[in-house]
TrEMBL record:
<keyword id="KW-0732">Signal</keyword>
<feature type="region of interest" description="Disordered">
    <location>
        <begin position="24"/>
        <end position="50"/>
    </location>
</feature>
<protein>
    <recommendedName>
        <fullName>DUF3558 domain-containing protein</fullName>
    </recommendedName>
</protein>
<dbReference type="Pfam" id="PF12079">
    <property type="entry name" value="DUF3558"/>
</dbReference>
<feature type="signal peptide">
    <location>
        <begin position="1"/>
        <end position="22"/>
    </location>
</feature>
<dbReference type="InterPro" id="IPR024520">
    <property type="entry name" value="DUF3558"/>
</dbReference>
């Protein structure tokens, strides 16, 4: 009887070991960690389909007239092309009764890896994804939010959103609407 219990225990141990190895997919590479890219970027922050912001000289041109109407700001006087004080790159300020927003191009000052490296200086830093690109929501509050979207390993498109009054119920979600603006602008980035 003791011998049968030992054989059963050894058999169960062997089966358990084999089944533990078989859990998951048949892909032998799955479960192994991916090597970091040569440039040292965290694979979670790596951009698979990079875009290039370097040739954009007017950030307001990232929104077509149709997109502007969808976003509730269709009058040309609602937009002002600027140069961002921090990056010294193109920026677009959007004014409306319902909200104000800023679209900033960051083509020369680091992408998401640099942003994540300094994430402790931001309030409410929340990694996310926008239109398949790595992103982060920063400084989120009840009426404002910043969304940074990595469009290349070293470039980002940034939207700062602040709710005023009125508008659609969708505009009451600052991070959600900032992401909506970003999604529309990304459609026009080469």
């Amino acid at each position: 009887m003791l011998r049968r219990a030992r054989i059963t225990a050894v058999s169960l141990l062997a089966l358990t070991s084999l089944s533990a190895c078989a859990v998951g997919s048949n892909n032998p590479e799955e479960g192994q960690s991916k090597p970091a890219p040569a440039n040292g970027t965290d694979p979670a922050l790596s951009v698979n389909n990079p875009k290039n912001l370097k040739g954009i000289t007017d950030a307001c041109q990232l929104l077509t007239p149709e997109q502007r109407t969808q976003l509730g700001v269709s009058d040309d006087k609602d937009f002002e092309s600027l140069i961002n004080d921090v990056y010294q790159e193109p920026s677009c300020e959007i004014f409306s009764d319902a909200y104000n927003a800023m679209i900033d191009i960051n083509a020369n000052n680091g992408g998401m890896a640099k942003l994540h490296a300094g994430k402790d200086k931001w309030d409410n830093f929340t990694p996310t994804e926008v239109a398949g690109y790595p992103a982060a929501q920063l400084d989120a509050q009840s009426i404002l939010c910043r969304v940074h979207v990595g469009v290349a390993d070293d470039q980002s498109l940034e939207v700062y959103y602040s709710k005023n009054a009125g508008g659609t119920p969708e505009m009451d979600d600052p991070c959600g609407f900032a992401e909506k603006i970003a999604v529309e602008a990304l459609k026009n980035v080469p």
